[in-house]
Design brief:
single chain; six-stranded mixed beta sheet; alpha/beta; elongated; 291 residues; Rossmann fold; 2 domains
Length: 291
């Protein structure tokens, strides 16, 4: 049972993301994510101007009249949302938590999908697969996806992206568009991402917070690793310490970028202190230009 605050949050995300889909993203989504090609629709009489290569010679021979095959684009896709529910996503220092931003990203992609008559599935993971909702259509299903992402209480605390991708490959028989929504603190996902991207169209949606990249000068603070529980006391007034933290954070971000590029996974980075619309529009334009 959701609390009244959670219900308000679901409603707020529904209103915000559905407007963004109708105003900005529906057209980009449809042009970037294509169906599986052409499928047979029917046989009809040949008309002047029809391509002779589409003539169905068996039907033509049987009826004595020329007939052609008609094909239509098979638009329908399956979209899978792989959402990181690890403890590190319950962190945010500006406008919202990473987990709240993950819910908005999931809602945005899900509403874009159902607007184009695609199916949407959800897989939530920590250091294990926590929840799997099979792909379905419809607004009611999308609202359940949002509710789960916002309110789900995982059993695990760590992050295992590889386990989520391996589960996806086991249960999904057909190619799908797969959004992996995570802060990507898991450094052991390279091989799993490479294998999954051969079968599916994998997109990394990276959740960042300003404090992931730099420490403020606020004196002595106690920090706790959300996934391991390890605690440490830091003097943020030490400029050398702040500089070392920033250098390590920058190196980790570059390693992440190299990993994703190395396995041909497109990435869109969204931050808790900035509107995500610009980052998503850049992503869609990049994909559209490439296609």
């Amino acid at each position: 049972m959701l609390t009244s605050e959670q219900l308000k949050a679901v409603r707020k995300i529904q209103i915000r993301t559905s407007h963004l889909v109708s105003d900005l993203f529906a057209g980009q989504y449809q042009s970037v994510f294509k169906g599986r090609g052409m499928e047979f629709a029917e046989v009809r009489h040949y008309l002047p101007g029809d391509d002779v290569r589409t003539i169905d010679w068996n039907v033509t021979a049987r009826t004595g009249l020329p007939h052609v095959k008609r094909f239509v684009e098979e638009r329908e896709l399956t979209v899978m949302l792989l959402v990181d529910a690890s403890a590190s996503t319950h962190f945010g220092t500006v406008k919202q938590l990473k987990s709240e931003m993950a819910a908005e990203m999931a809602a945005l992609f899900a509403f874009s999908a159902i607007t184009n008559n695609d199916k949407v599935g959800l897989l939530m993971f920590s250091d294990q697969v926590e929840l799997a909702l099979p792909p379905k259509k419809g607004t009611r299903h999308v609202l359940r996806v949002i509710r789960e992402v916002l309110s789900f209480a995982p059993q695990g605390h760590g992050t295992d992206i590889a386990a989520a991708l391996e589960h996806l490959n086991r249960v999904t028989k057909r190619r799908c568009v797969t959004f992996v929504i995570s802060d990507f603190l898991d450094t052991g996902a390279r091989l799993a991402l490479k294998i999954a991207n051969r079968r599916h169209d994998v997109i990394a949606v990276v959740l960042d917070d300003p404090r992931d990249l730099a420490l403020p000068d606020v004196g002595l603070i106690a920090l706790q690793d959300a996934e391991t529980g390890e605690q440490i006391l830091l003097d943020t007034g030490d400029s050398r310490l702040r500089r070392e933290f920033e250098q390590r954070a920058t190196a980790a971000r570059r390693d992440r970028e190299r990993m994703l590029r190395g396995v041909d996974v497109d990435a869109v980075v969204v931050r808790t202190d900035r509107p995500y619309t610009e980052a998503l529009l850049r992503f869609f334009h990049m994909r559209e230009h490439r296609h």
